[in-house]
């Protein structure tokens, strides 16, 4: 039986002395209040009210049970209040600093519709998992190899000028005899992780580029600024290139992709982020269409 519902009806009727008024106080129909009290009486094995009069008078057993019923109702109300407050406690989520503010705001709004309140902390790839370990955040989007990622985004090369070719081969960047500065490929800090950085360095060496031609930038802004004022290239996703006003092409010699997964202190947090908010997170990570993040 619904013990709390029965006790709530019992307390309300006892306070008003009327089944009709008590039902109104408990915000339930009068027949429902009567059924709940009858069920409570069957459960306890004794009558709570003397029904031989027009008013709802407590029996001696009912008077004995009333203080306990009131305590149970107060505890139930306190539990519901605490549950509402707990739902409002934000889930602190460490995210890549490449996530646009607009996309994070959209993800926050999407989460609120699910009674989940997010609080974001931007952090580089090497710090996000550590923030979970030290309990500074409840969850983090961490970089993983693309074949292990819940979200994966293809990477290519972006330039300030629209290339004629449909793909860019790194071997085409080999220095010639023109005397012009060699073109460089900038790796942004988010991609300064072994699955991406080390593969880029191996391709650089195998096609005969100079070591300085593929390098890790201090920041995304400095890398993008260098690309905008030169013939250099930025390793990035197609959506990121659009945001920066750059022309994007795939890499001819290699297929690279960012991989992301969730690390969380609680399994439930990780599950909700991977399932209920999958599409919104995909957009934050750089997929204009969530179908791209696969």
TrEMBL record:
<keyword id="KW-0805">Transcription regulation</keyword>
<dbReference type="InterPro" id="IPR036388">
    <property type="entry name" value="WH-like_DNA-bd_sf"/>
</dbReference>
<protein>
    <submittedName>
        <fullName>LysR family transcriptional regulator</fullName>
    </submittedName>
</protein>
<dbReference type="InterPro" id="IPR036390">
    <property type="entry name" value="WH_DNA-bd_sf"/>
</dbReference>
<keyword id="KW-0238">DNA-binding</keyword>
<dbReference type="Pfam" id="PF00126">
    <property type="entry name" value="HTH_1"/>
</dbReference>
<dbReference type="GO" id="GO:0000976">
    <property type="term" value="F:transcription cis-regulatory region binding"/>
</dbReference>
<feature type="domain" description="HTH lysR-type">
    <location>
        <begin position="1"/>
        <end position="59"/>
    </location>
</feature>
<comment type="similarity">
    <text>Belongs to the LysR transcriptional regulatory family.</text>
</comment>
<dbReference type="InterPro" id="IPR000847">
    <property type="entry name" value="LysR_HTH_N"/>
</dbReference>
<dbReference type="GO" id="GO:0003700">
    <property type="term" value="F:DNA-binding transcription factor activity"/>
</dbReference>
<keyword id="KW-0804">Transcription</keyword>
């Amino acid at each position: 039986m619904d013990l709390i519902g029965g006790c709530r009806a019992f307390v309300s009727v006892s306070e008003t002395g009327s089944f009709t008024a008590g039902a109104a106080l408990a915000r339930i129909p009068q027949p429902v209040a009567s059924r709940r009290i009858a069920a409570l009486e069957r459960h306890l094995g004794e009558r709570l009210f003397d029904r031989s009069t027009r008013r709802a008078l407590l029996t001696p057993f009912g008077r004995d049970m009333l203080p306990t019923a009131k305590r149970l109702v107060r505890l139930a109300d306190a539990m519901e209040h605490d549950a509402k407050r707990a739902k409002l406690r934000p889930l602190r989520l460490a995210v890549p600093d490449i996530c646009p503010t607009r996309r994070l705001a959209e993800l926050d709004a999407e989460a609120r519709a699910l009674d989940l309140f997010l609080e974001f902390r931007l952090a580089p790839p090497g710090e996000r998992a550590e923030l979970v370990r030290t309990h500074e955040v409840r969850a983090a989007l961490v970089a993983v190899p693309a074949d292990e990622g819940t979200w994966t985004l293809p990477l290519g090369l972006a330039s300030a000028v629209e290339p004629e070719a449909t793909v860019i081969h790194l071997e085409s960047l080999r220095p010639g005899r023109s005397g012009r500065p060699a073109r460089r490929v900038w790796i942004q800090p988010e991609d300064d992780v072994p699955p991406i950085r080390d593969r880029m360095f191996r391709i650089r060496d195998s096609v005969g580029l100079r070591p300085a031609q593929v390098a890790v930038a201090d920041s995304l802004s400095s890398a993008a600024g260098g690309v905008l004022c030169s013939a250099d290239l930025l390793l990035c996703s197609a959506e990121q290139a659009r945001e920066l006003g750059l022309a994007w092409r795939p890499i001819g010699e290699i297929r690279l992709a960012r991989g992301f997964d969730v690390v969380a202190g609680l399994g439930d947090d990780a599950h909700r982020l991977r399932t209920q908010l999958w599409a919104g997170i995909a957009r934050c990570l750089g997929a204009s269409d969530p179908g791209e993040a696969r």
